[in-house]
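Lecture notes, unit on protein representations.

Consider one protein chain, 146 amino acids long.
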Amino acid sequence: MRSVTFQVPGKPQGKARARTYYNPASKKHVSHTPGNTVLYENLIKDQFLNHADGFYMERGTPVTLRIVARFLPPKSVSKKKQMQMLEGEILPLKKPDMDNIVKVVADALNGVAYHDDTQVILVSAKKAYSAMEGLDITVEEYSSGR
């Protein structure tokens, strides 16, 4: 089974909603993706390409996407609570929403890891506290045994 695993450093971000506004000059409504989302998608793309070694899922190949979003424990909590967070006893019930993290990863890898994100048929995603924040991402060919 073919797969690529890579990390994206920094605080995990979700996909922000497209902004729509009316342009009186063209008399049309215009939508655009916020700049921070575009930059984050490009970071994900770059990290994938640094590890891909030619990996690409052709059209029609089902894809599994595995994501772990790692967050730093807040500095404002006690050392005991920080340890509980790092050991997985306390989970990060906070923004960004997991579905938005999945969306930004799937969109970023469109045309780079696979032809289109419609090929993604299985997603495994979780949020966890860690000593280092970032995303751990695995893109692999779907196997019906899992």
